[in-house]
Amino acid sequence: MSILIDAERLQKSYVVKKRSGGLLKSFVAPETVHVEALRDVSFQIARGELVGYIGPNGAGKSTTVKILSGILTPDGGRCTVLGAVPWKERVRVVSRIGVVFGQRSQLWWDLPVIDSFELLKEIYRVHKESYQKTKDELIDRLALAPLLQTPVRQLSLGQRMRCELAASLLHNPEILFLDEPTIGLDAVSKLAVREFIMDQNQKRGLTVILTTHDMDDIAALCSRVLLIGQGRLLHDGSARDLLMDRHERRITATLLKEPLPEWFRGIKVKHLHGQEWLVCFDPDQVPAAAIISILNERCGIIDIIVENPNIEEVVAQRYAQMEEAAR
Asked: Parallel, antiparallel, or unpaired for β 207-211 and 50-54?
């Protein structure tokens, strides 16, 4: 197994100005707070893996990606990407990785798409024959031919994302970092992007690190997930294990009749508004089907939704478990 990314005990912190005591005080004598973006984060990623890197806003995902791509220097720990220290040998690393940021473009806004491709060819010093072959394959695979003469600013979000993916792969990188690649896309565009990413991983052996808030992206693409929260790595394992580890589930039901608490011993039942009720339960203790059956037989179901906790709640639950184990 060839390890392409090896991170050990990465640490990164920032000093952030805190606004307090009015505008004048904030300007003349600002208070500062020390924010730990990464705290002893360690992981390895092998060639050909497709890894999801998830967590809430401010968890440390973007900081990690910036360190791996050589943009930031960590305060502590060590890291190699393709055998090089990324912040010390950035040119060497950048020439062998691709990066797509969902809300930032590497294409020139006022130029036709094909002109951006040609400029990237020169920036990465890609051999003419290799560029032509890769460009033609990407244009065909992503159906870009009708878009090549269109200025980037005139593209829809879905069209631009397809062009961004092509741009990131023109120099045949070995690792692709994807930061929120499906954010804001419609359902059809999301499916097209996911299919392309999976195809590149499986057929080319491209190593992919995907950061996203979209758990559907994770479920569709990733066999392995890294979960980070408040700068600490909370989970490194299969996506299935993480999803199955969310103990509390919820049923939101619109009912014809009011449910009685004694029907649900040890289960939280809360009235939301009108005919809508919330039932929170542990699926290891009682299956959702049993609760739904009781609600339907005794109350009459008008509408029903069964949900898992969101990713922020998963992180909070993991921290609670870690704190309890440390006592």
From this structure: parallel
Q: How confident is the model at residue 112 (pLDDT cuts 50, 70, 90)?
A: very high
Please choose, from the candidates 3, 63, 66, the residue with its C-alpha nearest in 3D space to the C-alpha of residue 39: 63
Q: Are 93 and 70 in contact (CB under 8 A)?
A: yes
Please report, for the chain, the start and end positions of each structural domain, with discontinuous segments joined by +.
3-9+44-244, 249-307
Compute the radius of gyration of the chain from its Cα atoms. 24
* pLDDT (tens digit per residue) in 16-41: 776 665 655 555 666 778 888 999 99
Q: What is the Cα–Cα distance from 148 to 152, expressed in whole angstroms?
A: 9
Residue 271 burial (10 A CB sphere; 0-12, 13-18, 19+): exposed
Task: Give tens-digit pLDDT for 61-97.
Answer: 989 999 999 999 999 999 999 999 999 999 999 999 9
Identify whether the C-beta of residue 178 lies closer than 8 Å to the C-beta of residue 100.
yes
| Pairing of β 207-211 and β 175-179 | parallel
d(CA 84, CA 87): 9
Q: What pLDDT was estimated at residue 245?
A: 57
Q: Give the pLDDT confidence of 264-301 residue by residue, as tens digits.
A: 887 889 999 999 999 988 887 888 899 999 999 999 99
Q: Return the amino acid letter for 243.
A: L
pLDDT (mean) for 198-211? 94
| Residue 248 in tokens | 């509390």
From the candidate CATH numbers 3.40.50.300, 3.90.190.20, 3.40.50.1240, 1.10.150.120, the one assigned to the domain spanning 3-9+44-244: 3.40.50.300
At 165 the three-state DSSP class reads: helix
Strand positions, DSSP E, 239-321? 249-255, 268-273, 276-281, 301-307
Place of tokens 């900081």: 63
Q: Are 67 and 9 in contact (CB under 8 A)?
A: no
Strand partners, 178: 100, 210
